[in-house]
Amino acid sequence: MQHLYKLGMDFLNKSFDDAFSNIEIFFLAYVLALVIFWLQKKQSLKAAFAYPALFALFTIFNPYLMIPIADAVDLSSRIRRIFWLLPVNLVLAFVMVWLIHLLSKRWKRAIAVITLAALAAVLGESQFVHMVPAENIYKITDESIQIADLIEKDAQTDEPKSCLFADIQLLELRQYDPSILNAIRRQEMIRWTIDPTDQDAVQQTLEKKQSRRILTLLLYYGIQLEPDVLKRNIKRHKIQYVIPNKDKGLGEYFEHAGYEAVGETEHFEVFRVK
Question: By the 8 A CB rule, do 163 and 240 touch?
């Protein structure tokens, strides 16, 4: 039991550091506010703030109870944000408004607002040090970033854009820009295969009218579709941009289909569907 208590306290201490590192003064102010509410005669203050905190103290902050439950549901490593359950910011905001409201003169309230704002700025943790340019933490290739930028510049919108590509490398496009969607699913790229020289197999795929596999024939295997087949399947998925690999030699094919070239990278071309 003592070992369980130690594990619980270690967990709580680590969680506290994660939540209030460098701003412990605000947690202390929160505790002081709860004590004041408890001493007040107004039952509403106790019901709204003190009683919930007291309940949490005997449940989620109880080392003997928390660790066994967390282990049982396999969440012991995912509830580090346990202190986020405490309405610290809400309570402190309420206290500041409450204190200002107690003052009768406007000039006194103005001074109180300025003083409290200054205290928050001085005692809080500056966020300017965290305001740094985003880094490519997922190690997305420069070419994928170039393609995403070409589409974003041309589309001029953050709304989802339906695209068509069949290279595994370009799956990271959505990782870089979630608004870029692909009509061909991962399973068509990885699991579905066909011999492009087998005319019967190709014809059978076309006859089944499975649009994603038909588009895979075009983008992955370089099998040029009849204009009406291309138009029908492009329209079905409301595709706005096509990104063929230059190795497939589809540039002229899409130009003849009336698609407008947006730009190109080392290995890919980007066409806008008109």
Answer: yes
